[in-house]
Specification:
Elements: H1 6-53, H2 68-76, E1 83-88, E2 94-97, H3 110-119, E3 123-127, E4 136-144, E5 151-160, H4 162-210, H5 228-276, H6 282-313, E6 322-324, H7 326-343, E7 347-352, E8 358-360, H8 362-378, E9 385-393, E10 396-403, H9 425-431, H10 437-447, E11 451-457, E12 461-469, E13 473-474, E14 477-478
Parallel strand pairs: 7-9
Antiparallel strand pairs: 1-2, 1-5, 3-4, 4-5, 6-8, 9-10, 10-12, 11-12, 13-14
Helix pairs in contact: 1-4, 5-6, 6-10, 7-8, 8-10
């Protein structure tokens, strides 16, 4: 089944709303016009009844003038065509009436007459003559004495509502004749306007269909008017920017990861092929196996680091929130790194102040410090210095790792936390490392809501400063600031 288009839905809703509005409008016109016509009829009936009540027709004893019709003709100048007149006494009995008013067809509503006499007010009524479906509108007009307010009788003047009914019938015919035409016009206009309004969306869809992984640089044209369509186009372009950046990172990451894994495999293959070409001494075989083991360990570290970063990207890397004594953690690492520094003929110095405990994942923080110190020792030539510092700040603590190593070019500093990025690829491979250490450091710092800053000068060294916020006491207890699973 073919899906219904938005254009058709908008047109249908437009026609539906227009139909409801048109129906309400026609109903209002019908009700208002009917009321206006009835009011006009009532005013004419009141004028006639009031005129009759002031003539001698209502002053003749017992309301029995012998020439009622002739007197009416003299009052109005002509016989009132289509009008029914009768004069009722105090008891509701007919005193005089026109010939066209048959009491058998239109009986007197004596209860209503008594109410008019009792209240002394005009009351209108609509009656249906016996055997006829055309209603007659009557006015019951009280006749009062000249010298008092007492009601002496009632003048009834009536007229057929055939004109009103015919007018209303003709109005309905007009409504039903014009209604479908108006709905058709409304549908055509709605379809046109919906198409015009949706044209930019169709252009967006057409452009989006042609954007593939091979041309992610293409963008949707943003309309000049900053309306909802413009916001949609801007949002999609922003999404395409992020997708393009993600594809670039994925492509670069795949290339770098393949290169990093291919290098140790190539070395291992070359060494093993050489070992198999002829007889070798046990010492030579041990040397070959030892070298191969180093490359295996290097590949294993790359894979483990990649697994860590992959789990962290998906929010699956578990992050605990426990009190951590950073000074004790750093003191525990110092002996190992002092030995490592001595092997590289470096001097490792430390300045570890007493600091407040923070909340965090002790193992992750330990890994962060190990990566920073390892990098500092790895990239510092013999005879250099590495410094490890720890101090309190107003709202947290700061860990500082400084070295007098080769330094980082200024233009490379913003990218050193990218995966597999190396400022000097040739020299970096000489020093070893997977190219993922600082990426892991950055993730750990972010997961602890911290900040890491780098100051470096080529040939003079680098300084890494990590700020970690402290936990605040809540009801006498320390409140962890980390969630159980970190999201990047």
């Amino acid at each position: 089944m073919r899906p219904i288009s938005i254009r058709f839905k908008l047109t249908a809703w437009y026609v539906l709303v227009f139909s409801v509005v048109l129906a309400c409008f026609c109903f209002s016109i019908y009700v208002i016009l009917e009321k206006k016509l009835l009011d006009s009829v009532d005013r004419r009936l009141q004028t006639m009844a009031e005129l009759i009540s002031k003539t001698e027709l209502c002053l003749v004893p017992n309301f029995l003038p012998p020439d009622f019709e002739r007197r009416l003709n003299r009052i109005f100048g002509t016989r009132p065509v289509g009008k029914f007149v009768r004069v009722l006494d105090f008891s509701g009995e007919i005193g005089s009436r026109t010939d066209n008013l048959d009491e058998d067809q239109i009986p007197v509503n004596k209860d209503l007459v008594r109410e008019v006499i009792a209240r002394g007010e005009i009351i209108y009524e609509t009656q249906y003559p016996l055997g006829r479906d055309m209603p007659i509108r009557f006015i019951n007009f009280p006749v009062k004495s000249f010298n008092s307010k007492n009601v002496r009788g009632v003048v009834q003047v009536g007229t057929s509502l055939e004109f009103v009914r015919e007018s209303m019938r003709n109005l309905l015919i007009v409504f039903f004749a014009l209604g479908p035409s108006l709905l058709f016009v409304a549908a055509a206009v709605g379809f046109f306007l919906a198409g015009k309004a949706l044209k930019p969306i169709r252009e967006i869809a057409r452009t989006a269909r042609h954007i593939t992984v091979n041309n992610l640089q293409e963008r949707i044209t943003v309309p000049v008017a900053r309306d909802d369509i413009g916001q949609l186009a801007t949002t999609i372009n922003g999404m395409l920017d992020r997708l393009s950046l993600s594809f670039q990172k994925i492509t670069q990451f795949t290339t770098d990861a393949s290169h990093e894994l291919r290098t140790p495999l190539t070395i291992m293959r070359g060494e093993l092929e050489i070992a198999l070409r002829g007889e070798r001494s046990s010492e030579e075989y041990q040397e070959t196996l030892g070298s191969s083991l180093e490359e295996v360990e290097r590949m294993s570290k790359i894979v483990n680091d990649l697994l860590f970063l992959s789990k962290s990207d998906m929010g699956q890397e578990e992050l605990h929130s426990d009190p951590v004594d950073l000074r004790a953690l750093l003191l525990n690492l110092l002996p190992y790194f002092k030995l490592l520094a001595e092997e590289h003929r470096l001097e490792l110095e430390s300045s570890l102040a007493e600091v407040n405990s923070i909340y965090g994942d002790q193992l992750k923080l330990r890994q962060m410090v190990i990566n920073l110190l390892s990098n500092a020792i790895r990239y510092t030539p013999a005879g250099g210095h590495v410094n490890l510092g720890l101090k309190n700040l107003d709202d947290g603590v700061e860990i500082m790792v400084a070295d007098t190593g080769i330094g980082i070019p200024e233009e490379a500093v913003p990218r050193i936390f990218d995966r597999f990025y190396r400022a000097d690829k040739a020299r970096s491979r000489q020093f070893g490392g997977s190219g993922l250490g600082l990426s892991i450091v950055k993730w750990i710092v972010d997961a602890h809501h911290g900040v890491i800053k780098v100051d470096s000068v080529v040939g003079e060294g680098s300084v890494f400063r990590v700020f970690l916020p402290g936990g605040l006491p809540v009801n006498g207890e320390q409140k962890p600031f980390l969630v159980e699973t970190a999201q990047r």
